[in-house]
Protein 1
Amino acid sequence: MKKSYQSLEDNSTNNMKQVIYRNLTSKILYLGFILLLTFSTSLTAQEGDPVNGKALYRTNCASCHKLDSRMTGPALRNVETRLAEEEGLDREWINAWIKNSAGLIRSGDPYAVKIYAEYNQTAMTAFPQLSNQDISDILAYTAEPKPEPVVAEVPTGVQGGGGDGLSSDIMLAALALLFALLAGALVLVNRTLKRFADEKGIEVPVKEKGTPIWKAFVQNQFLVLVTVIFFLLASAYFVYGFFMQVGIDQGYEPVQPIHYSHRIHAGENGIDCKYCHSSARVSKHSGIPSLNVCMNCHKSIAQVGDETQAEGISEYGVDYNAQIQKLYKAVGWDATTQQYTGETSPVKWIRIHNLPDFAYFNHSQHVSVAGVECQTCHGPVEEMEVMYQYAPLTMGWCINCHRETNINVKDNEYYTKIHEELSKKYGVEQLTAAQMGGLECGKCHY
Amino acid sequence: MSSNKKYWKSVEELNENSSIVETLQQNEFVEEIPTDEFLGDKDTLESSSTSRRDFLKYVGFSTAAASLAACEGPVIKSIPYVVQPTEIIPGVANYYATTIANGFDFASVLVKTREGRPIKIENNTDAPTNGVANARVNASVLGLYDSLRVKSPMKSGANISWDTFMSETTTKLKGLNGKAIVLLTSTMPSPSTNKLISDFKSKYGNVSHVTYDAVSESATLDAYQAKYGKRGMANYDFSKAKTIVSIGADFLGNWQGGGFDSGYSKTRIPTNGNMSRHIQFESNMSLTGANADKRVPLKPSEQRLALAKLYSYISGVALPGVLPAGLDEAVKAAAKELSRAGSNGVVVSGIQDVNAQTTVLEINEQLQSAAFDPKTTIFTRQGSDKAVMQLIADMKAGKVGAIITNGVNPLYSLPNPVDFAEGLAKTDLSIAFSMKQDETSTKFEYIAATPHDLESWGDFEFKSGHYSMMQPTIRPLFDTKQFQEVLMAWNETSGSYRDFLKSYWTSNILNGTSFNKAVQDGVYMSSSTSSTGNSEQTIVGGMVDDVSNSFGLGNSDETTVEETILESNVLTGGTAARALADSAKSEGMELSLYTKIGMGDGQQANNPWLQEFPDPITRTTWDNYITVSKSDADAMDLVNVNVANGGLNGSYVNVTVNGVTIENVPVIIQPGQAKGSVGIALGYGRSSQALKEEMKTGVNAYPLYQNFSATQNVSISKVAGMHEFACVQLHNTLMGRGDIIKETSLEIFNTKDKNVWNKVPEVSLNHIETPVTSPDVDLWEGFDRSVGHHFNLSIDLNACTGCGACVIACHAENNVPVVGKTEMRRSRDMHWLRIDRYYSSEESFEGDNEKKENISGLGSSLSEFGEMENPADNPQVAFQPVMCQHCNHAPCETVCPVAATAHSRQGQNHMAYNRCVGTRYCANNCPYKVRRFNWFLYNKNDEFDYYMNDDLGRMVLNPDVTVRSRGVMEKCSMCIQKTQKTILDAKREGRLVEDGEFQTACSAACGNGAMVFGDINNKDSKIAELKENDRMYHLLESVGTKPNVIYQTKVRNTSKA
């Protein structure tokens, strides 16, 4: 403790001394700069191209730097101006730093050393491949003014939906009006005709009042019987249907403690399912990824892109950045110091796919051995903003797949002999899972 | 035409004027229905605030609420790790090698953990010593999840913190003003712990360490120490013996720490026409006696003389004393056989007498027995009776300042707990290191909560040079500290015990090999002599010396102690045998105290698996009892009867030894019990708050264990009342049905054709006798199982000793519930695997078969079948493990109305619990009676308050096996979860399954090689070979069920045939 304090002090005194010295040199440099400006225009060619800079920034810098907030490295917005104004460091220093920061630190450059110490003594990766022009492009990009924050648009869904509703309502109203007019017209015509008839003295034959239809119905016992049977059968059908869906949670889409978007991760970013659900390869459980797996990426992704954020708010009403903050809170990550605090609060996810205790299912059998795509059972996960149960997970559904799916025998010595013998016995080219014994009770119930 | 017959229900009805008939006709209910009792009480009725309307409202509301609640599925939460340990994959089991060492059982084991929870104990096949877990070791995993464990250190019944504990105890230990500190521990053959104890001694000065075994082997240790200079026991490798003579040694049970049975079983399987011959002289019917080729029942006092005579006949030294003629002949014959066997013979004895044990060592040396290995010392018993008694005397004299116990329960297991309690009151500080608030720790000032073996670090030297490592398999569940950790804190040694262990091992034992490797293997073999030297130090530093040196006693006391030891040890050779012969005095009834296979010394009494474990011999659960021979029982009018509900009842007796009486001991009439002798098992009758109410079973026999002598003169008197046993096997004999357990003698086996001694049963087809295996007589269409795997399980009746490790392993693997004593008595036991025990009614089973064959005519069959129900006085015994036989033509399948049970291509008979509606037709149609019905919900049910009723206990459940619900049938699945896992592993790795990979829980637990499991379609496998073995037969083959469990005919090495 004491020692580091000592060294800090040393540092500051050093700095002080050097500042004086540097002021002097910088004056000379400034002079030189002005001279250069006046005598040559070639330097203006060094003006960066922010578009190219953006591309370079994305590939080289973005994994450790953000424009407006601190990450592994410091925030870079207007870094050149800030360095020049606050530390009096020029472009040359920046070039030297980017191309070989470690060298600069070794050379004892005070600001380099200071930065190095401030960021946990992690040296910045050297980028010798970047030319001065590249660097000035990047700097030009960082010098661009911060765009106005995207104003969270009031979700337009309701409004738009309302608009649609209105137009159809108008159509309906118009139709209703039309029908009313037609009906009115008919009544009018009828009345007029009757009047004519009366005037002409034509007797309109009065229809004899028969038994009302419901009475006739009651009297016809056969019809009653048929109707009763029909209603009984119909209700039995619905009751059966109701009971058969008890306990089947197809489409179950619970609200999770953290709004995790499979659409973004598996869809847009194309992360392999088994990167996070790695135990699906070897275990019966696919496994809910532990939070340290999330942090493999989210250590450096504290915020989503602005467009994604805007999309989240407008389309799904979700603040993605707040969700990432929830992750940080759960895993105990302090984004400002870039360190784990050790205070964790494990996430209580709500389990979506619940098999009963008496049904045994093994992911690795299906994923590793059979090579079944995750989507076969879990549906288009890469399109799901919120995960839901895609398949009914009923026994009939399992069995059906076992009947239809051929076993994957390719390059699997285990199957070679047994497949050869069994396929000969059944007289088929390719055995289904059912023919391998995949319908036996004890394969799943024990 | 109508009949004139008059039907009548009683004679009274014929009497027309009977008033009784009149009244009965008028009055349907003879006894009045007590409506008045209920409704007549006006006050209660009126004061009741619940009107009929309200009642209906409540009923309606609760029904509606319940049905509404049922509509919504429960929300199930899943909580993943924050940081997942790399070695844990949810759903994949991890195995760790560790050690179970609780002072009574010592075993190197593998622990199966799932998601960080130990769920099962398996054998460590890499371990050359004690790598086979017995029933108690298998069950000890449940002790980890005992809800009655001490959860933090305690002071006078209140929880305190470890900081308080450490600061208070350290101050008190330092302020004893020179009074002695005594460490009273169970046997801990741990090199590092002994180092810590010697550090503790040098730090605190007046410290002594007394080792106490609840069930003492002190005499054996003394004899060995006198002869070989080390405190330990000689090693026996029975696989090198051809002729084994045992005098009262239950070496297949708990004799000298156990672990001898796998060597024994190796010699019991006839190979090249040879197998070992085993002669047993004993009083109680023990597991060992049940396995013997020749068993001679004799009283404990006669055992002494028999051993002396055996010595005499072998060495030719004449000794006084006369044995009854028959016995003498038997001893002579045994001596002759031993002399003939020479170095292939071995003698063992369980007589707790220094002279007896010295004599045994002498005989074995004289024989130059190959099985006898005195150079390898067994260290798993270290207790010294004298040291313990001296300690109690010193405590009572107020010489002991502080007593610190670890792993012992003297106030339960001492014969004189009152003396100990009296002495305890005079100590200034008492600390009990214990997992439980047991009989002892509750009386101590401090309880230092200790972790379970599965949560601890440790090292053990089972035999010289044979080390076993203990490592934690789970983070401690409670706020506990190991004895060693606390010792280190008292010693002011910094670091953790693990670090200490590592540095101690690196510098003293490992000789440059890797510590991590030793921990990973769980065992370490040292060939260098340094370790032996080290252990010698351990032993000498052990007990006897300490007692005399460190109590601060006067010189005179010291000499007396040493003198007594010398006195007992000085006898050698013939002198010991002579003294032994002199000591053989018989007075009236003699008692042999023993320990049961299930309960051991009683420290695991709160383990429901062990309570419900049927004793291999009596097949009784949840009890101990006094075993009495039939003739003694008749003389004292003691009875065992089967009552109408099928339960076994027995008389009660009072048992008195030297004025100490235990009241109401239930009686079991034990075939084979020597006349004039009785036996009682130790380890029952626990009574503290360390046990649930249901577990407080049996009577405590330790008060009879006076002077640590297992044999006592006893007097017995019958008292009124009948005890209700929970016995799982009520029929004791085979009634001459030789096709259930096929057996033959070695001579017939060697000389005669297979058809003579293992004939396939025949049935008559068109009046031609046809073997039942012929397809012509089969009602069934065969099912092709030639492709893929076809599992078979072979059980060798020769190698099976009936030890029951498989029963507990099956319990643990398959989530078999515990049902409790009342349900057991109703024959509602749930064990998927049972080990049937049969007695012969004649001298031998062969005699039974002959007798049955010769029965002819009604008169003869009426009397003789009745006789055959009774076992002989000294019967032959046979064990037969029976589980679902997985019939290819299964009778259970055809009667199931919902097709819940079905055969499979792999030979397993499947049982789909979710499909079962509980008609129980299958159980009725099963010829083997192996199906078990869930009469109740045995989990999360307060009526069955065993491990499945608390959250902690349920942690032991195997997540791969369904926990069955009420109303479904269940049975052995041939561990389909294990076979499926093996297949899946092979599929994932894209390879074939190798022989030996397939295992069931029982076959993996069987260290005796009696159970072999495998795929008979793999023609190179061991099981395929066993299937073709001449000894192979199927149980009840004549029924034609074509089972996939096969048995190997039992061959007895009887000299007779």
Protein 2
Amino acid sequence: MLNNFVTPDLFPVIPEIFLLTMACVILLVDAFIGNGKRWITSFLTLLTLIGCALITYLTMDGQVVLTFSNMFVDDLLADFLKLMLYLSMIVVVIYSRDWLAARQLDKGEYYLLVLFATLGMMVMISAAHFLSIYLGLELMSLSLYALVALDRDSPKATEAAMKYFILGALASGLLLYGMSMVYGATGTLEIGGVAQALHLGVANKTVLVFGLVFIVSGIAFKLGAVPFHMWVPDVYQGAPTPITLLIASAPKLAAFAMALRMLVYGLFELAEHWQQMLLILAVLSIALGNLAAIAQTNIKRMLAYSTISHMGFMLLGLMSGTVGADRHFALNAYSSAMYYSVAYVLMSAGAFGVILLLSRAGYDAEHLEDFKGLNQRSPWFAAVMLAIMFSMAGVPFFVGFFAKFSVLLAAVDAGHIAVAVFAVMFSLIGAFYYLRVVKLMYFDAPVDAAPIVASPDMRFLLSLNGAAVALFGIFPDALMSLCTYALLRSL
Amino acid sequence: MMEFKTFVFYVLSAIMLVAAMRVITARNPVHAVLFLVLSFFTAAGLWMLLEAEFLAIVLIMVYVGAVMVLFLFVVMMLDIDIERLRHRFWSYLPLGAMIGLLMVAEMALVLSGKYFSTEVLPGQSMPAGYSNTKELGHLLFTEYVYPFELASVILLVGIIAAIMLTLRQRKDSKYQYPLEQLAVKRNDRVRLVKMPSNKEPSAGQGEQSS
């Protein structure tokens, strides 16, 4: 056993090592600076994320490199998703700062947990072993549970954290049980090894499918797909808004990566089984998400249901990979799902960014009425919100339209025409609640006339975010071909 | 005549099942925790039979020694009214039991197949002097060093989160500052007030040195 051990090549893991080291440094620095100098922690956190992005970008070479006894993989897909991850975390930190400072919640632990959650997601994205997927997931989830409870004096946040924690632990248990079945059937937990054992046909199919059910349930929980969605609305509404922003953005990228690594890289031979499961999840999520969102008056809760339907769309792309044994469409389908996750993160970050922008000390703009007459208060940010809402609804020439379009195209290519029609119908229904926000902003008189105050960097970033939603809609090819290329070089 | 190991296995399994059953049926939460300790102990015994001595020791040290003792403290400190918690127990029992039994039956169909039967599983025993713990240690620090490090980071997150959620700088608590106490001067504590001697002193108002 000892003889064939190779000292791990640390080069591909440098971003992770850098992040971990910096997190420990920030932990110490933050312990010694006073409460008044929290900007140092915030600044160091941003610096760390930017440093990670630079390292990942500079060490990106398009090769698939495995290290740590085949537990860690560095490929173009991982690099691309990690860059997106850093970007969304930078956005989260900048959007959140003022909100947290106004409520005395900008503790050093917030920044640390954000960094550790980032590390967990990086591990998930780069996982080549079921064990690393699980540990990355736990690292991310534990940080998120604690972050939801950041505001200890709020009973709503505590309740949300409790629900999130208990259901999350249950989902982790399901996932682990599924993994143990995969291990029982194939004798390995390496994703490549599992795929090989399946390909050679030495593994017991019944046991594998049995394990697959649990793995898919675990993934569905983390994505918040129906019928594992119960936690989503409560957590989105109960958590402090910056934490909702965090939960609604980057973890979706990580969950996508996790699904891709386990189902496509590992259990591709079982595609006919998991595609059916994903189909059910997708159809239910799109239907329930869009219908339930109509009834909401709290915009955070509304966006939670909208997340559920968006994740349904993402799963629709993920399940359109193969038809029978024909893998011709696989690349298109998976890159459409990836494009959808990236587009969703972009839109979701913007939407919660506007909510944070409208909030101030002692007041949260979390009701739909708070958006009334936003156009008169700030035409520019009303336009940003307009772009995001149109994009989420799937109005043409915004990024969300092309995301939906490519997913539907993949579904139609795979022969799921009825499902595609169903999805279009429900996104039409969904357009109602997105357009209602636009109507409130432009055609109603403002209830709240307080001026909008925000730091210049947040204004700049939010404007950029809105512009990106519009620009990627006009030039969708850039992002789409990046996704396709990253997947092509990594599959 | 049953082999001795088989006999021990059945005895331990029976104790474990009864104890696990009592965990959820015991009315007194402290008893439930103690039954859980018992079931952990017997599970450790079963692992010992499987020659997984490291797991058995860890189970006893970590779960019984640390986690359950802590749990016992918490249960004793909290005033849990178990009857109030389960007053809807009987109304939910039929549906819950039905779903539970259905799932157990389904899982049993898959798991009781030939695939997981004892004939298929390797039953060879290791030579004397073979150390399970040593092998695990080797693996943990070579092949599995990446998950091992990740687990340590998860523990660090646990510490940070626990401190964040519980450490509270209370405004109403009183602290002693030894440095200030030692550095105090007479003038900080005592104020000498000059009073005209001919005036009638009113009771309780006169300030004076000690």
